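User: Could you check the structure of this?
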Amino acid sequence: MYSGSNITARHSMSDLSNALFHLLHQYKYNEITITMICQEAQISRQTFYKLFKNKKGVVQYLISSNYSDFEEGFQKTESLTLEEFTKYTLEFFWKKKDLFDLLISHNLERYFLEEVQERLASVLELFQATPFLENKTIYNFLTGGLSSMILYQVGVDKEENIEQVAKEFADLMGNPVLR
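Assistant: Sure, the predicted structure tokens are below.
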């Protein structure tokens, strides 16, 4: 996937991901071709392949582009408990429920989980000075557990118990301060 800063390329990536999002409302994922995405976005196949290797790359971009502000939400935070972190995370992803529902309906949750784990890992790097996160087993448990919780929470339409889930998860881990 293209990772440069060229504004035109970034705009094309956005157009292609929006085209895929639109097509997913009309067709099964397996029925959607690169040609269909390019036609919907009005972008050449040549440009597509300069930006993405395949359709999976567009799905990953679609997911990741929706979550760049997730990371930004933690940049200015000086201190945060695991409960606050978990609550913020679940609420943030709940707000993106329509995208998740669409991905789940097309059996694309594995891509979602990959991207969410990367995002969580990126955010948790902000808190690496926390002794609690120095243990890689705990760190992996936390990212994997939160990813699964997000998928379950959104997949079963359970917004009403986000606070309870965040508290119970944090209590399970001793509710450490992350920074």
